[in-house]
From TrEMBL:
Identification of the protein by name: Cytochrome P450
Cofactor: heme
Record-linked SUPFAM superfamilies: Cytochrome P450 (SSF48264)
Any one GO molecular-function label of the UniProt entry: monooxygenase activity
Species annotation: Teichococcus wenyumeiae
UniProt keywords, alphabetically: Heme, Iron, Metal-binding, Monooxygenase, Oxidoreductase
InterPro entries reported for this sequence: Cyt_P450, Cyt_P450_CS, Cyt_P450_E_grp-I, Cyt_P450_sf, Cytochrome_P450_Monoox
Pfam families in the cross-refs: p450
Chain positions recorded as heme binding sites: C407
Record flagged with keyword Endoplasmic reticulum: no
Length: 461
C-alpha cells in the first residue's frame, strides 16, 4: 500500500490551485450537508491513508489497519475528540462518557466499567429475551400484507432493553417520541459539522442549533426527573443510576451532580439503543434479500432450541446468527466514521500530522476496502468463521472502534443483538417490501435514507 497524497501546498501559492481548492471545498461542504458518506473521497475505499487540505484545514483519512492501530492505540494519547465530536453531540450528551476527555473521561470510564463486565452483561440476558418476545408479539399483530418500517420496531426493542437493564425498569419515557426526537437531533448535526469544518466560534449561530437543543429537551427532562426521584427514594437497585450516584473522582473525591448524571444517562440511552437497533434493522433487511442465508440462520436457531422458545443458555450457541450480525455491521457499520483532532503532532504512514489536523477513520470504507476484503460489497457471513477472523488484522473489522475509547457496550450489544435475532428469526418470517435496499446516509449513525419496509408473518408462537 502506498500513501495516496500528502497535504497540498498553501492554497494561495497559485490562483488556479486556489480556485480548484475552493471548488473542492464547496463540493465537500455541500456533500457534508446532504450526507457525509458522500463527502468521503472515493480513494478511501482503496488507499491506506489520504491527506487533503479542505477549507484551509488539514484533513486525514486513515484506512490501513496497521495505521489505525498506530493512530488510535500507540499514539492514542496524542489525539482528542475535538470539535468535530463535541460540536454536534455536546448539546445532547454534555460531559458524559462519550465526550469527556483526559482525567475527567478516565475516572468516569473506571466508575462505569462494572456494569459492562461479562458476568453482569450476561445477567441482563433474560431481560433482553423478554424485550425480544414483546417485539415478536408486536410484529405478529401486524395485519397480513402490511409493511412495517423495521428500523422503528428494532428501535423500540433496543430502547426497551436499555431502559430495563440500565435504569432497572420503566422510566415513563414515551419511546416513540424519544426516538423521533433523537432522529431529529441527529439529522440537524450536519449543520454542526459544517460549523466545525469552518471553525466557527462556539457562540456563532448556525441553522438547527436551537432546534437541535429543543429536540433532546424531552428526553433530558424525563431522565433528570428519574435521577431526582432516585435520590429522594434512596433505595439501591445496582443499576446504571446507582453507579452514577455512587461514582466519585479519585483525585478530588467529587461526585457527579444531577446534570452530569443526566449527561451520562442520555449518552447510554442514545449510544446504547440506536446503534444496536440500526445494526439489527440492516441485518433483517439483508436477510430478507438473501433467502438462502436466512434459511441457514433459521435452521441454526431451530437446531439449537430444539423448537422450544429461545432460552438464555441457547444464545451463546447461535454462532451463525452472530456471524450474520457481524457481516451486516461490516456492510452497514452503525457508527460509520470516527473523528479525532491531533492534539500533539506525530508522523503516520509517511504523513506528518500537525496539531489541529482533523483525523477521520471511515469505518464504512475500512469495512469495504478493496485491499482488505474479497468482493467487499457481497453479503457473506462465512467471512466471520473462526479461521477467517484469525487470518485478518483485528482492525479490518472495527464496528466498536479501537483503542482506549473503544465502545464500552460492545459485549452488551453483541449479546443483545444475537438474543433479539434468535427470537425474531424463530417466531417471524421477514420479507423485504422494497425491490432495492435504500441507500445508507450518515446522521452520526448509519441510517437508511428511506424506511426499511418489510412484510412479516408469524412462523411459530
Ligand atoms: C451495535 C451496537 C454498537 C455500536 C456499533 C457501537 C459503536 C461504538 C463506537 C464505534 C464507539 C467509539 C466512538 C469513538 O471512538 O469515537 C462507541 C463508544 C461508546 N459506546 Fe457504543 N456501540 C454500540 C452499542 C453500545 C451500547 C449497547 C452501549 C451502552 C449500553 C454503548 C455505549 C457507548 C459509550 C458510552 C461509548 C463511549 C465510550 C468512551 O468514550 O469511553 N454502545 N460505540
Amino acid at each position: 500500500m502506498t500513501t495516496a497524497s500528502t497535504f497540498a501546498r498553501h492554497p494561495l501559492e497559485g490562483l488556479a490551485q486556489f480556485g480548484a481548492l475552493a471548488g473542492q471545498s464547496l463540493r465537500v461542504l455541500r456533500a457534508v450537508l446532504r450526507n457525509p458518506l458522500e463527502a468521503l473521497p472515493p480513494e478511501v475505499y482503496r488507499e491506506p491513508i489520504l491527506a487533503r487540505r479542505v477549507l484551509h484545514r488539514n484533513i486525514v483519512h486513515v484506512m490501513a489497519p496497521e495505521l489505525i492501530h498506530q493512530a488510535l492505540v500507540t499514539e492514542g494519547d496524542k489525539l482528542d475528540k475535538g470539535d468535530s465530536v463535541r460540536r454536534p453531540l455536546g448539546p445532547a450528551l454534555g460531559e458524559g462518557l462519550l465526550i469527556a476527555e483526559g482525567a475527567d473521561w478516565r475516572w468516569q470510564r473506571r466508575a462505569l466499567a462494572p456494569i459492562f463486565r461479562p458476568a453482569q452483561v450476561q445477567s441482563f440476558l433474560p431481560a433482553m429475551l423478554e424485550a425480544a418476545r414483546r417485539s415478536a408479539a408486536r410484529l405478529r399483530a401486524v395485519p397480513p400484507g402490511q409493511a412495517v418500517a423495521i428500523e422503528q420496531e428494532t428501535m423500540r426493542a433496543t430502547f426497551d432493553v436499555i431502559v430495563e437493564t440500565m435504569l432497572s425498569g420503566p422510566a415513563h419515557i414515551d419511546v416513540d417520541r424519544a426516538a423521533a426526537d433523537i432522529t431529529e437531533y441527529l439529522r440537524l448535526t450536519h449543520w454542526a459539522n459544517i460549523a466545525s469544518l469552518l471553525r466557527l466560534p462556539d457562540w456563532a449561530p448556525y441553522p438547527g442549533r436551537r432546534r437541535g437543543r429543543r429536540a433532546v429537551g424531552y428526553l433530558r427532562g424525563r431522565l433528570m426527573a428519574q435521577v431526582a426521584a432516585r435520590r429522594a427514594d434512596g433505595a439501591a437497585r445496582g443499576d446504571l443510576i446507582d453507579l452514577l450516584l455512587e461514582a466519585s473522582d479519585p483525585e478530588t473525591g467529587q461526585r457527579m451532580d444531577d446534570t452530569q448524571i443526566t449527561d451520562n444517562l442520555v449518552t447510554f440511552l442514545t449510544a446504547g439503543h440506536e446503534t444496536t437497533a440500526l445494526g439489527l434493522a440492516w441485518t433483517l433487511d439483508l436477510l430478507g434479500r438473501h433467502p438462502a442465508i436466512a434459511r441457514r440462520a433459521v435452521a441454526e436457531v431451530d437446531a439449537v432450541t430444539g423448537g422450544s422458545p429461545v432460552l438464555p443458555e441457547h444464545v451463546a450457541r447461535l454462532d451463525y446468527v452472530k456471524q450474520v450480525f457481524q457481516e451486516a455491521m461490516r456492510l452497514y457499520p452503525p457508527v460509520p466514521i470516527l473523528a479525532r483532532r491531533v492534539a500533539e503532532p506525530f508522523a503516520l504512514g509517511g504523513t506528518m500530522l500537525w496539531r489541529d489536523t482533523a483525523l477521520f477513520i471511515p469505518i464504512h470504507a475500512v469495512h469495504r476496502h478493496e485491499t482488505l476484503w474479497e468482493a467487499p460489497h457481497v453479503f457473506d457471513p462465512d467471512r466471520f468463521g473462526p479461521e477467517q477472523v484469525a487470518a485478518r488484522h483485528r482492525h479490518a473489522f472495527m464496528p466498536f472502534g479501537a483503542g482506549p475509547r473503544l465502545c464500552i457496550g460492545g459485549g452488551f450489544a453483541m449479546l443483545e443483538a444475537v438474543a433479539i435475532l434468535g427470537v425474531l428469526l424463530r417466531e417471524i418470517r421477514f420479507t423485504s417490501a422494497e425491490a432495492v435496499a435504500p441507500a445508507p446516509r450518515v446522521d452520526i449513525t448509519l441510517r437508511p435514507s428511506s424506511p426499511l419496509r418489510m412484510t412479516v408473518a408469524a412462523r411459530r408462537g
